[in-house]
Write a structure and sequence with these properties.
The chain has 124 residues and is mainly alpha-helical. The protein folds into two domains: 2-59, no CATH class; 66-120, Winged helix-like DNA-binding domain superfamily/Winged helix DNA-binding domain (Arc Repressor Mutant, subunit A), CATH 1.10.10. The chain has helices at 10-18, 31-42, 50-59, 66-76, 81-87, 92-106, 111-120; strands at 2-5, 23-26, 47-48. A three-stranded parallel beta sheet has the order 1-2-3. The two termini are 25 Å apart.
Length: 124
């Protein structure tokens, strides 16, 4: 299956390939790139639009731990620290430590900035 997408994130691209998408191409790709992608698929090869592949390489690996990835969407939804702690069976201090680590790893100025950076980078 060749997926045509207007845009994607590195994490979403990895998920699609993990779910056995044979190829991913930009909807803005020129016709010759589409033909090239289809031909690769017909030969049983995978195809990732170079536009998406370069973006994934530029983004680098996700620096967040699995637990930080669990904490982040809850914080992004505005869930209070104490409630995040209860949901994840953690102490509130541990949640604050995770949020501090997320802010440091993303280079954000604060929690909101860290959430924005992590989301734009496709880490959440």
């Amino acid at each position: 299956m060749l997926l045509m997408m207007a845009s994607t994130t590195p994490e979403r691209l990895r998920r699609m390939l993990d779910l056995h998408a044979a190829g991913v191409i930009s909807t803005s790709a020129p016709p010759d790139r589409l033909v090239h992608g289809v031909r690769k698929l017909v030969r049983g090869q995978r195809f990732v639009d170079p536009e998406f592949a370069l973006a994934a390489l530029d983004a680098g690996a996700n620096p967040l731990t699995p637990r930080e990835v669990e904490v982040l969407p809850l914080a992004a939804d505005g869930t209070p620290t104490r409630e995040i702690a209860e949901r994840l069976c953690l102490s509130a201090a541990t949640v604050r430590n995770h949020l501090s680590a997320i802010t440091r790893k993303t280079g954000g100025r604060n929690r909101i900035d860290a959430i924005r950076i992590a989301t734009e980078s496709g880490w959440v």
